[in-house]
Specification:
Strand order of the largest sheet: 6-7-8-3-9-10
CATH architecture of one domain: 3-Layer(aba) Sandwich
CATH superfamily of one domain: P-loop containing nucleotide triphosphate hydrolases
Structural class: alpha/beta
Radius of gyration: 17 Å
Strand content: 25-35%
CATH topology of one domain: Rossmann fold
Order of helices and strands: EEEHEEHEHHHHEHEHEEH
Length: 238
């Protein structure tokens, strides 16, 4: 793993996320440093996606503190959060099906920070997208759509990239390609928070991880320092 500079980029302190009266996340503490990959693992319904929604400003109600680069995100709109350097690759991709590949990609450039990552960089990461750039998003395979979703997030030139279940429903060879790109991205110094149900895949790319169980952190640490059996016990609450 590439070294991080140790400077904290994201700090989450005692965060709870609510939908009406239901508490999906319960007093979670979490941090991501510049250039660090942090994985959040957990079964379906553990609160992983809710935590990402809280960071990006899309949760119904959030208690606790979420700080990005030392600044409180409370009360900020999603558009403001994105323009300041946080991008989300959402579960389900959320592309505009009638827009072309290139039009979907350029939306990231329009709403994000202007920086060193340009359209040609995305086509360098995903050559197939250059070939498909005039096609409608709805005409792409699932893997190609996920490439567009990731490329769109990168064109916002994030300092912190949030990835929500990017391997879900995709063939292993496609997932391998996507995770290879994540390793390339982290070399640019971009911090990443990667949400996955796939334990092995997620821990293989992570510097540190948090395991969520019923909305709470059941285990945290470095993948190399925790056995697979221990992770499984905390993942399933055994």
């Amino acid at each position: 793993m590439a070294a991080t500079n140790g400077r904290e980029l994201l700090s989450i302190e005692k965060v709870s996320v609510f939908y009406d009266q239901f508490r999906a996340v319960q007093e979670v503490d979490l941090a991501v440093s510049v250039g660090e990959v942090v994985s959040i693992i957990g079964a379906n319904g553990a609160g992983k996606s809710s935590l990402l929604k809280a960071i990006i400003g899309r949760a119904d109600r959030v208690d606790g503190a979420i700080r990005y680069d030392g600044k409180d995100l409370a009360g900020r709109s999603t558009a403001e959060i994105v323009s300041n350097g946080i991008s989300l690759v959402p579960e389900g991709r959320r592309l505009f099906p009638t827009l072309t590949v290139e039009e979907n990609l350029l939306l990231g450039w329009e709403v994000g920070r202007k920086g060193e990552i340009r359209l040609d960089d995305i086509y360098g990461y995903f050559p197939i997208l250059r070939q498909r750039r005039r096609q409608r998003a709805r005409e792409l395979s699932g893997g190609e759509q996920q490439m567009v979703a990731l490329g769109r997030a990168l064109l916002a030139n994030p300092r912190l990239l949030l990835c929500d279940e990017i391997s879900l429903g995709l063939a292993p060879i496609v997932v391998n390609d996507l995770y290879a790109i994540l390793r390339t991205i982290r070399a640019r110094g971009i911090g990443m928070l990667v949400v996955e149900q796939d334990i092995t895949r997620s821990l293989a790319v992570a510097d540190r991880f948090y395991c969520l169980l019923e909305g709470s952190v059941s285990l945290a640490g470095r993948p190399a320092e925790v056995s697979h059996d221990i992770v499984l016990k905390h993942y399933f609450g055994l």
